[in-house]
Amino acid sequence: MSNTGIIILFIVGLLAVFAEILIPGMIVGICGTICVAASIYFAYQAGENTLGNILLVTSILSIPLFVISWYRMTSRTFAITASEEGFTAAKGFEDLLGKEGVAVTPLRPSGIAQINGRRVDVLSSGEMIPSTTRIKVIEVKGNKVVVKPI
Length: 150
Prior knowledge:
By secondary structure, this protein is α+β, with helices and mostly antiparallel strands. The chain has 2 domains: 3-78; 92-149, CATH 2.40.50.140. Helix content is 45%, strand content 26%. The chain is built from 3 helices and 7 strands; from the N terminus they run αααβββββββ. It has helices at 3-22, 27-45, 49-77, and strands spanning 80-83, 86-89, 100-103, 110-115, 118-124, 134-141, 144-149. Strands 3-4-5-7-6 form a 5-stranded mixed beta barrel. A hairpin with a 6-residue loop joins strand 3 and strand 4. Helix 1 runs antiparallel to helix 2, helix 1 runs parallel beside helix 3 (49-77) and helix 2 (27-45) packs antiparallel against helix 3 (49-77). The radius of gyration is 26 Å and the shape is rod-shaped. The chain starts with a helix and ends with a strand.
């Protein structure tokens, strides 16, 4: 394999590993890792020790870059905070308990309500509630907001 082919294989592998951060599922990342390892192997097999060393060092130095990128992307996507009861969503609905609002859609038993200027996915306490009915939040557990008609 030529040096150009080895370098292209290496770059494709790095791009696949980086794509794994955006598209989780492990298959793309595993294929990318195999491409990177194969390019390093082919470089050494071709007698290109300098190219092999450069690819090896580049792959080792890129690991922290990928880990930091992965951490930053997942920390924005899955923002969680610790509490006494365990982990909960960072933007909770606890402040809505006892507040009143209006059902935007019919609640059969779930739907959307406008509470404190926020559109919130809610559940009725069992009954069907028509839209535009005034409602009150009676229970909040994590992201589950239970309401009843006023």
